[in-house]
Amino acid sequence: MRASLDGLSLHPAKSQWVELWNGKQALGWDYYGTPVFRFRWAPAGLATRRQLRAMRMSPGGHEPYALLVWRKGKRWAWLYRLDLAKPCRVPSPAQLNALDKAMEARRRCQLCRTVTDYCIPTSDGRCHACMKSPVPA
Ligand SMILES: [Zn+2]
């Protein structure tokens, strides 16, 4: 059970060695069964959601493993196990296809129907060649 900790101050307790999932130990303390680590003291192999996102990873449906606290416990974030994290969902072929079609529509000249290799301004809708050449009557 993970209670909401919003607005809660996690006052740093006396640091002690906390046994980790991988058998290693790290200095932190226990908060109702959840290990808590000070900023810069968090053991390797754990990352915040923000750090995961920067690595194009997601918690993969796993509960956070520990808490990271800083600013004397006024700020905190969940820590997730990197070994359980999953790569962010990549678009399916169908989604890519739809994206391709949308991109192609953006690159198709409204006048000569040519698909260009650049995006045509939506305000005009004509390819560069058509813009340059006199508009046929
Ligand atoms: Zn054109």
Structure write-up:
With 137 residues, the chain is α+β, with helices and mostly antiparallel strands. The chain folds into 2 domains: 16-87, no CATH class; 93-132, no CATH class. Helix content is 19%, strand content 25%. The protein has 3 helices and 8 strands. The chain has helices at residues 49-54, 93-107, 128-132, and strands at 16-19, 25-31, 34-38, 46-47, 57-58, 66-70, 75-81, 86-87. Strands 1-2-3-6-7-4 form a 6-stranded mixed beta sheet. The model has no long low-confidence stretch (mean pLDDT 85). It binds zinc ion. Zinc ion (ZN) is lined by residues 109, 111-112, 114, 126-127, 129-130.
Distance between the termini: 72 Å
What's the overall geometry?
elongated
Content-based structural category? alpha+beta
Share in helix: 10-25%
**Major sheet size, sense and barrel closure:** 6 strands, mixed
Mean pLDDT, nearest integer?
A: 85
Low-confidence stretches: none
Radius of gyration over all CA atoms, rounded = 26 Å
Q: What share of the residues does DSSP label as strand, in percent?
A: 15-25%
Order of strands, main sheet, comes to 1-2-3-6-7-4
SSE order, one letter for each helix or strand = EEEEHEEEEHH
Supply the number of helical segments. 3
Oligomer: single chain
How many beta-strand segments?
8
Spell out which ligands are present.
zinc ion
Count of folded domains: 2
